Each structure stands twice: as structure tokens, then as C-alpha cells.
Amino acid sequence: MSKRREVKERLATLDEINSVMKTMKNLALLEIRKLEMFLDTQRRVTTSIEMTAQDFLYFYPQIPAQPGHQQLLIVIGSERGFCGDYNESLVTFLNSQQLQRETLMVVVGRKLESKLLENFHIAAFIESHSVAEEVPITLQRLIEVLNRLQQAAPTKIGQISVLYYDDESEKIRLRQLLPLSLPEPELTYSHPPLLHLEPTQFLTKLTDQYLYVLLHEVFYSSFMRENHKRLAHMDSAIQHLEKDTARLRMRANRLRQEEIINEIEIILLSTEVLSANDKSFHS
């Protein structure tokens, strides 16, 4: 096989890889567009529930929190790769935290799972989502695991936190979900809310609803950042690939020129030999 043919086959392979990478880049862009709409709506819902909770707790601050000592940490990674240092950064941040020995950990995403297999805090691994429409399915899996851990834990789970990539700040964030950790209210309320339930019962239902809505926001935010990382990773890989392709094309052109020169030289030599033979024949 000639060198030029080897280069041509390598070029064909690079073109195929380039096509796959551009497809992955376009898919990441599509997910980002969808998530922009989801996140905007989800953040408005979260803010609305937080305002309701602030209003309630302003007038009923004496309601005791549910007793519980077990801590649980949810770590949200990626299901797919090609997203740069996304999962590695989560592991580095996690290793920098001083977790209590009895803290339980639930890891979301197979790519992150492979990096935390030996962590003794792990209580469960959960398959994650590949597109935005699958986020509710991931949440359902998570809720089932949380219910199972709550029933199996020797003491009631009293604190739930989540470690994830926050797209708004573009940083890894450790966020407490339960007990309610609300931002400081920007206004005070003159009249207590009208309740149709007992205050304790109302707070329980409000907490469940807030947790469900907040988890949606967290997962959408994390997935948005994952796709931004994947987009940047694909851009960098495509640029590197195009440089390699350009160098190979130049090499293929040089090899072709060398082949043409060799062919010309062979033709000229053949012509000289024929001319010499012709002169000898006539003499």
C-alpha cells in the first residue's frame, strides 16, 4: 500500500470522526435551547414556593423541624461522556469536603459512578438522563431510592443536600435541600396567610412540594452545564481535528506531487531509452 493511499484512508477516517463530533455538538446545542425554556419556568416556580414558605415561616417560626440525624448527599454527574472535566471536577470538589462518617451518598450518572466506586459513603447509584425529556424519569428513580433509604436507615434522615454544577454561577455548588434553607426575605408581611390545613401539616406538604420542584431545577441546571461543557469540548476537539486534517491533506498533496514527478521521470527515462534504441537500430 502506498503512503498516499494510507494518508487518504486516514483522511476518510478523520472526516467520519469530524461528522460524528459535529452531530454531537448540534445535539448539545439543541439540549441547551430546550433547557433554557425549562429552567426559566422552573426557577419562577421555585421562587414562588420560596415566597410562600417565607410568608408562612414569618408567622409560624415556632413549628419544630422533624427530628432526624442521618445526613444524605446527592451528587449529580453525567450519564454520557465527552463533556471535558465535568465529572473529574465534581470528584475533586467532593474529596475536598469533610463528610461525616455516617453520611449516605447517592450518585447520579454512570460516568460519575465509575469514578466513585470505592467511596465507602455510597448508598446507591442511579442511572441519569441523556436528554432533557428524561429528567422526570431520573427524578422518579431518585425518589424511589430516597424512600428506600429512609425506610432502611437506622435513624431518620434529617438533612438532604445536593452537590451539582450550577449553570447560573458556572460553579460547583453544595446546596442544602432539607431542612428548608430559604434566602432572606426581601419584604415583611402584615397579615398571616389563610390556611385550610393545620400549620404543621401545611409545612409538611409545602416542604414535599418544594423539594420536588427544587430537584427539577437542580437537575435542569446541572444538565445545562453538562451540555455547555460538552459544547466547549466538541468545539476544541473539532478545531484540533480540522488542524490534523489540514496537515494530512497537505501531506497527501505532497505525496501526489512526488508520485507525479516520479511518473514523469519514468516517462522521460523511457523516452531516452527508446530514443537510444532507435538510433542504434538505424546505425
Automatic annotation (TrEMBL):
It is found in: Membrane. Belongs to the ATPase gamma chain family. It comes from the Bacteria. Its main location: membrane. The lineage of its organism: Bacteria, Pseudomonadati, Pseudomonadota, Betaproteobacteria, Nitrosomonadales. One of its GO terms (molecular function) is proton-transporting ATP synthase activity, rotational mechanism. It is a peripheral membrane protein. One of its GO terms (cellular component) is proton-transporting ATP synthase complex. It holds the Pfam family ATP-synt. Produces ATP from ADP in the presence of a proton gradient across the membrane. The gamma chain is believed to be important in regulating ATPase activity and the flow of protons through the CF(0) complex. This is F-type H+-transporting ATPase subunit gamma. Keywords: ATP synthesis, CF(1), Hydrogen ion transport, Ion transport, Membrane, Transport. The keyword Manganese does not apply. The keyword Cell cycle does not apply.
